[in-house]
Amino acid sequence: MSVPQKTTPMPFDAILLAGGKSSRMGTDKAELNWQGQPLWQYMRALAIEAGASDVFVSRNAAGFIPDRFAKAGPLAGIEAGLNRCRRDRVLVLAIDTPLLSVSDIQQLVSTNTRKAVCFAGHALPCVLPNTLSVHRYLQQVLSRPHSNRSVQALLSAIGVESCEPSHAAALSNTNTPADWQQAQQLASKESCHG
């Protein structure tokens, strides 16, 4: 594995995946209160603070970007959002990683490569090249009902570089009420020490 070179970030757009069922959480994760605002708004603001030109929120609800392929998971959200993006690089964020920081995102987007970029061992967040080949891959996979529709499969297919996160807790997913409570406790400790 080659070590990606870091440079000044090129302009990028962002897609926030906020359309999951939240079945393990028992309530809509995107609407959970994080630091005084709905989580989707917090994550959108985080992407903007990190330098995103535009942020497209993938969510099957009024005022958001709906999936064009029904019940097809995160790739459907990426496909719908990517059709709106104008920049050559696109940051893809999951709604359920509220411990990410601006510096975490900037670490990904400043990695100088034509490939996708992610943190080692984590498919999301990632940076995708906004190329015809990525669009074609998504169209093909989403058009076939029994294809592998994972983000990891997408990254493997298009080529990916990985980098090490500065702190692993930032990549923790909040899928259950216990995860959410732990994330809130970690955030509270960070604010006390920061």
Describe the structure.
The chain is an alpha/beta fold and 194 residues long. The chain has one domain (5-193): Spore Coat Polysaccharide Biosynthesis Protein SpsA, Chain A (Alpha-Beta Complex), CATH 3.90.550. Helix content is 34%, strand content 20%. The protein has 6 helices and 10 strands. It has helices spanning 39-49, 74-82, 102-109, 132-143, 151-158, 177-193, and strands spanning 5-6, 12-17, 33-34, 37-38, 52-58, 89-94, 111-112, 116-119, 126-129, 160-163. The strands form 3 sheets. A 6-stranded mixed beta sheet has the order 5-2-6-9-8-10. It has a two-stranded antiparallel sheet with strand order 1-7. β3 and β4 form a beta hairpin. α2 (74-82) crosses α4 (132-143). The longest helix has 17 residues, at 177-193.
Supply database-style keywords.
194 residues, alpha/beta, Spore Coat Polysaccharide Biosynthesis Protein SpsA, Chain A, six-stranded mixed beta sheet, globular
**What is the global morphology?**
globular
| N to C succession of SSEs | EEEEHEHEHEEEHHEH
Structural class: alpha/beta
The appropriate CATH architecture is: Alpha-Beta Complex
Task: Put the structure in a nutshell.
The protein is of the alpha/beta class and 194 residues long. It has helices spanning 39-49, 74-82, 102-109, 132-143, 151-158, 177-193; strands at 5-6, 12-17, 33-34, 37-38, 52-58, 89-94, 111-112, 116-119, 126-129, 160-163.
